[in-house]
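pinging the channel bc i need a second pair of eyes. not urgent but kinda urgent?? the chain im working w is below, pasted from the shared doc
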Amino acid sequence: MPENTFAMGVDSLRELKKLEDLIQAEMGMDDARKAVETRYPWMRVVRDIAEEQGFLHWELDFAGVLAGEAGGFDLQVGNPPWVRPEWKENPVLAEYEPWFMLTEKPKAEEKNRRREAELARYEVQEYLLGEMTNTVTMASYLSASSVYPLISGSQPDLYRAFMCEVWDHAGRSGAAGMLHPDTHFAGDKGTALRAVAYRRLRVHGDFVNAGNRFFPPPVGRPTHFGVHIYGIAQEIGFDSLSWLFTVDALRLSATAERVGAIPGVKYDGGWDERPHPDRVIRVTTETLERWQRLAGETGPLEHTRMLTPVSTAEDSAIDALGVYPLRLGELNPDITPGYHESGSKKAQFGPDKNQRLIDYNTGIDEQEDYHASSWDDVILKGPQIGVANPMYKQPSQGHAEMWGLDPSELADDAVPESEYRRVATHEVFLSEQDKWTDWDTYEELRASVTERTQAREHIAKVVKKGKVAPDDVMDAEVEAFLRAKAGTPYSERYRVAWREMIAPGTERTLYAAIVPPGSTHIDAVRSGRCASERLTVLVSGFMAALPADYLLRIAGVGHLNVAQVKTLPAPQADHPLASALILRALRLNVLTSAYADLWSALYDPKWLGYEPWAITWPSMSTELHAVTPTWQRDTPLRTEYARRAALVEIDALVAVWLGIDAETLIAMYRARFSIMQDFDRVTWFDAKERKMAGDRYTYGIHQTKDHWTQFEAYQEACQKDPEITVPVPDGYTAPFYKANREREMREAHAYFKKRLDEAVEKGLWDPEKMEVPGK
């Protein structure tokens, strides 16, 4: 008889079995079953579900092993299913009407109409209800604390349940080998499972499915998965190897000779497949303590998120970032998630709860798609934000366009396209925004006797409903009321905005830029501001730097939400390198006149005589410090060469600021930025500061495949005879400069390190306390 543990316990099953046996003694098998199901009608449902699902009861099927002398299995090996039971309606409806998956950006009204039409059909209702029941009940079962206490409260996933089963069924000296994802090592809610995994782990190998070498599509090439060897629980101590591309790299690294370059993600133009002893990271409680410092977190060490350094060469980077004292959360930034993308398209806002906030900006009143007349009409999506570039790509470009907008062609008053438009009234649209305190207004309100008196009277009469006298209202309540009164919608401020999704399989994972007042965004973007515009711009500079990107990569951060962004290292407003960072960050971000007020507010007259390029950039005609107090057409850096130069110098500047030496910065680049390395190997710049690249994913603006073909012919001819005049690619101007990021970062690092050392020698900065002495 098949049993169902969803419906009853083992004891209940035994009682039913006894009842069946008694009936069978007097009746046949079929009659006995009918009699039981007549007396207990729910048994018919139990049998049907059990037969359909094929439940496995470990305690019954393997009773001899689990109840034996060893008390479990000596060896278990498996590849559990990587399945997360999530309810998604569109794929289910698409089984009957493909429109739900094939149509991009459907209008809310059309989608609702089609949905109601499909659900009016009985067969669709029945199918959808069955799929929803299966998904929801599976998720509920996996999340039940009485069933799987280690994963209760976290995102349910079948592989996590199998981990628990395998540990429960292991003998006193049993071992287990499992192949499964590592999401529990990085999630916010997987601490209980993570703690047990750390104690049971003996070997952990993090593999990458590059080139689909391990799993075919639909498993993606950037997908990571782990090989795990588990034993009985003990004090934490295991070997961890990350970014593996071959099985031999896991098998042979511990015994390999220490020869050749330190391992990285890329080697000699391809994936680094070499076994090497420096790949082996011995993880102990001391290691977890260092990792915890890097993450800026507190709590039990066994709850620490797992890091994935490629080699021991990254230890210095981890330690430098870990001991850096100031985190963004300590600056108390205001941060908003913006408008919920799907929720804001539902009619649930306004006084009558009948307004939608946003909708797709297509086919409205015969206007061109994506048209926005001002920044007040712009609702940003993630791909529009680049690294220190608020106008990186536009919705109309689509996925085929690999390059972004051309800063040199932007009009002074240019406004980015907007895939969404506001459909609610302006008042309702603003009312649904997070409110941020205007601190100047707040101080004025605090200083006003009239405002404080009115606040007390309002709180006593309205909030306390007349139950207390105005004089009995607490000062803290008055302060909170005045702060709320001084609050303004977040869109009225300059902010640093960033993509919420962290995608490790790209050239950069952290995309952040400064956006002007008026602009809003959906929740695929986050934005924030600090107490001053100066600090906000400095934070944008930190977020544009390679060390911040590296931290997110090695920590395995997948979503840069409010809690995660607050763990990033933060700048000090009076640091000796602050002015240098502000100049570079502003010149990259302030692409239009919408930033004129910000530029004027932060302009520093010292830039003219003291802030040239950190290094000599061959054929560079753009001067870094040639700026005026008011925003002009040439205030932003507009050429591809100058913009890249500023970003490279920011990488080195922030590294010096954080106490990261040059060789460690290079190790970070080699270990984590494989795509950037690929791009750098085939990137050149001409005398007009235009980019020429050999990889279509990093082509220069307006570059074509033919341009590269012409450039290769030009290079070949020059190598044979430099004296011969050879035609350059159409539209380009010789000479050409070959990108060399490692050399560039070393030179820039030396420049900024010298400047900081000079400030320390003059008593302008205390490197231990990270502050101006005596301030």
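so Confidence is low (pLDDT under 50) at residues 1-11. and The longest strand covers residues 170-180. — does that match what u expected or am i reading it wrong
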